[in-house]
Structures are given as structure tokens and as C-alpha cells.
Amino acid sequence: MRKKKGLLIPAMLAFSLCGISVLPVLAENTEQTADSANTASEADTGSTSDTPYEKGTITDTDFQSEWLNLKFTPPETVVMNTEEELQSVMQQGQSTLEESSGVELGEDALSGTVYEMMASSISGFPNVSVVVEDAALENMTVEQYFLAAQQMLDATGMGYTYSDVTDTQIAGQDFQVMETSVTINDYEVLQKYCTRKQGGKFVSIILSYTTDTTAEADEILAAFTPLNTDTEAAPAE
């Protein structure tokens, strides 16, 4: 069983203020390696969990991941962020987190986390990111993952509030959802953390929006579809 050094998990969200945009940020380790260890529960024939983890690909027009069996085709008013933009936002977000929480993040403290993609509305909200993270403890559940995330968010002192955990399906896959709310510069920012455990990793689709962009946020979640419709979705652990 592998354990991370430093933090149990990285902070699930830090804010990088770029003009009028407020983007969700997770620090990532771009040197993430494939983890070929599969549990017995992942042995379903045809399931994407039978294969080692491999990072998805970003283009100008979409995001695709064979391992996640996910495809994201952005709505007309949503733009895919490039890898370079992801790196820039993550660096700003890590600095923001360190300043607000007083927690110094070492170079290896956030290892095992891969920022798969980010897409943002041209007006800043809503925006979405997909993150894959190693489970710090083998038997850690999604509910425990959310509790650890809440502890990190609370450490920022920004005054987050949280909803009860609910269930949903995205692209035919089962996710658990934690909704949060935080006030930034006198306006309310809402987030949905849609998370599932797959292949010993936590997969999160993180959606940030405002009360007046709820319809657009729903369109963004609906833009996630199965990459291969003839491939059975990996079972949630």
C-alpha cells in the first residue's frame, strides 16, 4: 500500500484570480506514472479498469480518455484550456493555497495527482476540470475523501459550506457529489465535486459556477459522454 508524503490529499480547490475569471485549481504531478495494479473487483470483462492508468488527451476541440472512457466536447461558449494554461493556473493556485492556509507544499507533497483537463466559459463561469488522484490509503472511500477535502478547504479560512453527499450519473458512470459554496469578492461561487473511485484512484469532475450560470453548468456536465459506447463502464469501487 502506497502512502503519499505530506498531505493526505491535495487541496481540492484554490482560487487563481485572472481578470474576471475564477478558476478551480488542483496542483498536479505531470510525472504521474501508470499504476498497473488491479484489484479483483476490477476484473469485469470489457471494463476500462482492466487496463493501467493512462492520461487522456486535450485538443482544441475536445478531451478524450480511454482509461476513463470519457469524452468532453465543449458547448459553443466554452473553451478548452491548453496544457500550458493548465500549468500556469496550477502554479498560481498552489501559491494562493499556501498563502491562504499557511501550509507550505513541498515538491513531492502533491505527487500522484494528474490534472486531466480544464475548460472555461468565455465569461469565466462556469468552468470544469477533471482530476485523477492516487488513493492515499487503499481502503479510503469517496465519503472519506470528501471529508479530507473539506479539512483542506476549511484550512484556507475562506468560509466554505457543504451539502450532503448525493449520487448522480455522468456519461453512464456512477459518481458521488459534494456541493460547496464560498463567497469571493462579495459574490457566491458554487462548486460540484463529482467523484468516483476507479482502479485505486479517485476521479473527480469539478464544476464551478454561479447562481445565474446554473443552466450553462448543467450543459457542461451533459457535454461529458462515453468515449466508446461499446465499452462497459468501469465499476465504481
What do you see in this structure?
The chain is an alpha+beta fold and 237 residues long. The chain contains three helices and 14 strands. The chain has helices spanning 83-101, 142-154, 214-222, and strands at residues 14-18, 21-25, 57-58, 63-65, 70-72, 78-80, 113-121, 127-134, 161-162, 166-170, 173-184, 187-198, 201-209, 224-226. Strands 6, 7, 8, 9, 10, 11, 12 and 13 form an eight-stranded antiparallel β-sheet that branches. A hairpin with a 2-residue loop joins strand 10 (166-170) and strand 11. The longest helix has 19 residues, at 83-101. The chain is globular and about 45 Å long. It starts with 13 loop residues before the first strand and ends in an 11-residue tail after the last strand. Residues 1-48 have low confidence and may be disordered.
